[in-house]
Amino acid sequence: MILANSRKEFFISELQEIGFKYGGYASFWKYTLYGNKNHIYFTTISGDKYNYEIILQNKQKKEALKYFLNELNATDSIEIKKFGNSAF
User: Fold this and answer.
1) Where are the domains of the chain?
2) What's the pTM value of the predicted model, to 2 decimals?
């Protein structure tokens, strides 16, 4: 188990697949224990699978992540899959 304040680094070259499920960025009204959660998950070349719940603080952070994932998809041989809210 990885705790909220812990840190683990992954090299892009070690990743085989990245997926992202977008539920919205965090706000008091939208973010609940049961819904509107964002998940990023990936598989490493060695077959290890990871699934992290992440919070996007605002639209600017959402756009930064969107740009990053699009750049990965365009420049590296990683398959990016997007699920959930079509606003992403």
Assistant:
1) 14-84
2) 0.67
